[in-house]
Amino acid sequence: MSRAQISALVLGVGGFGALVAATASNEWKVTTRASSVITATWVYQGLWMNCAGTALGSFHCRPHFTIFRVEGYIQACRGLMIAAVSLGFFGSIFALFGMKCTKVGGSDKAKAKIACLAGIVFILSGLCSMTGCSLYANKITTEFFDPLYVEQKYELGAALFIGWAGASLCIIGGVIFCFSISDNNTKTPRMGYTYNGATSVLSSRTKYHGGEDFKTTNPPKQFDKNAYV
Which of 64-68, 109-113, 200-204, 209-213 bottoms out in mean pLDDT, i.e. has the lowest? Predict the structure, then answer.
């Protein structure tokens, strides 16, 4: 079961790294080339900055200076992704203490509880990231297919797919951690004892004296002719 925990740790840490990359990325949505007049210039936006780039490789980014002018769904996605990253960090720490191959964390029973806690934290991290990315993607697709929406339309950016992939890895790793404690709850098999039967006092004394024959120390009684008188 240590191999399963190692695999779960690799998946969880990999998912945590993907969540960090998705949160810091500026490519949550990019301008669609279908409605763009100048295809050599495109705009891509993230949770923290708005960027514009050209085909020559130059780009310029402008951060969101105030949170009061940012749309509500962006603020919600910010909170969800920050929560996902935080949970992923603590889940990685708990996983290191709960693994059987490490010497920290206490007894096996305590390690099992810590490993289960790490699995739950990883699952919550994946759910937060999945919710944030799905909320952002729903907003983009709703505006894209709305015929009455006349402003600039966007497509799904690479950060969304990275966030979905990281969320999936965290959820899978968390599930493996939760099921890895099943062998700790198994009962130890009972030892079987064979019944040899009751031994006589003579045989027990013979074994006690190192296998020597049991001999009586009292001399035999001799009876004379007046014994029954």
Answer: 200-204
Residue 132 CB-density burial (10 A; 0-12 exposed, 13-18 middle, 19+ buried)? buried
Residue 193 Cα to chain centre, angstroms: 42
Question: With b meaning 16 or more CB within 10 Å and e meaning fewer, what string describes 10-39?
Answer: ebbbebbebbbebbebbbbbbbeeeeeeee
Amino acid in position 129: S
Q: In what order do the strands lie in the sheet with 59-63?
A: 59-63, 49-54, 41-45, 29-31, 154-156
Alpha carbon distances (Å) from 104 to 162, 179, 180: 33, 20, 17
Pairing of strands 49-54, 41-45: antiparallel
pTM score of the predicted model:
0.73
Please give the pLDDT value at position 221.
53
Amino acid 148 reads L
* Number of CB atoms found within 10 A of residue 47's CB: 21
Which DSSP string do the residues of 56-83 spell out, in sequence order? TS-EEEEE---SSSS-HHHHHHHHHHHH
Q: pLDDT tens for residues 104-142? A: 767 878 888 888 999 999 999 999 999 999 999 999 999
